Amino acid sequence: MNKRSTLILGLSLMMGTGSNLFAIQQTGAVAAQKKGTVMTGQAKGTFDVKVVPLPQDEKVTGVPVARFSIDKVWKGDLEGTSKGEMTAVDTPVKGSGGYVAVEMVIGKLKGKSGSFTFLHRATMRANTDFNMSIEVLPDSGTGDLVGLAGKVTIIIEGKNHSYVFDYTLPDAK
User: Fold this and answer.
1) Are 150 and 116 in contact (CB under 8 A)?
2) Which domains, and CATH codes, for the chain?
3) How far is the C-alpha of 114 from the C-alpha of 90, rounded, in Å?
4) Going by C-beta distance under 8 Å and a sequence separation of 6 or more, which residues neighbour residue 25?
5) pTM of the full predicted structure?
6) Cα four-point dihedral sign 17, 136, 110, 85
7) What's the CA gap between 62 and 73, in Å, rounded?
8) Which tens digit of pLDDT belongs to each residue from 117-166?
């Protein structure tokens, strides 16, 4: 069994039955990296997002977390949809907390079709200090997006959401 298969199997065992979808979707990404030069790019646009609370399955006693589904429609240089799951926690200090999320994107990045996964990590300190890191999960790209890497910055102005996605992608040549 190769390292990738071992990793997927290990993640499946750790995460339970819900991870079977992850393993199945990632199988298409196992293809070898595209050869050629690496293109550096920046994608910009807007997105609409819907965040909905999820049922609290089996909670760990004493861990005050909440789960949410994420549904997005991406517009601009990245066109498509994404679905994800977020786990969030508040602290005893009002306005402080954090979240982690996994978000699977399907669409076109500047005309190149495929899918990939974003990993999110964010913290907020009493509504004054907001730190967010969202990056592409290595080796999650499929189709024309095999080898995609990068980080996205989300800009929230009132109820409007926009993004700047700095990425690299192997040239298909």
Assistant:
1) no
2) 1-30 (no CATH), 38-170 (2.40.350.10)
3) 35
4) 104, 115, 142
5) 0.78
6) positive
7) 35
8) 999 999 999 878 889 999 999 999 999 999 999 999 999 999 999 999 99
